Model the fold of this input.
Amino acid sequence: TNMKLKNIILALTLCFSQLVLADDSKDLQNIIFKHDGLKADFSQTVTKADGSLVTKSSGDLALKRPDNFILNTTDPDEQVLFTKQNEVWYYDAFVNQVTIFSKNDLYTSPFLLLTSRDPKVWASYTIEKNGDTYTLTPSKKGEVNSLSLTVKNDTITSIKLKMKDGNINQYELSNQSYEVSDSVFNYQVPKDAQIDDERRSN
Done:
């Protein structure tokens, strides 16, 4: 359903609310904004609360500030999530359909936070550091209960999302680099793709 798809998008795109530990927040922002861009391969696992595997996938992601982002899943199926001006597009090659959301509706969701320097966005999260891991908990409970970023040598190595339904989405990053070409974000959806415009329903 459209609502289920929107919840998935909200989970994939970067969740945050109310800074309590300002030093931890500042440390994390210094790491994230040390470079203007990030490109990496990822392997994702989704597990239930009891640890049983729901699904596995892999692909690559890239971001470049101020607001360019793309998450390209290549295995087992092609699915592409990317920003386009003031919109977020989600293309599912299996059904040849693109769903379009307003970026404003998704700025409180996961990966887009990595592109935002807006203090209001960051101020909507409690951020706490434990060892190499920063855990971000939104003040407004939504589909994502918390987000954890593991950082080693000032490089993000994993991203974990704890979902409202109990599932855990874990992204392990590899082959990180910081030189990102603008052309990476010029993804072209097939002209014959079906369009589901969620902007009209907001």
User: Anything to note?
Assistant: The CA atoms of residues 113 and 184 lie 19 Å apart.
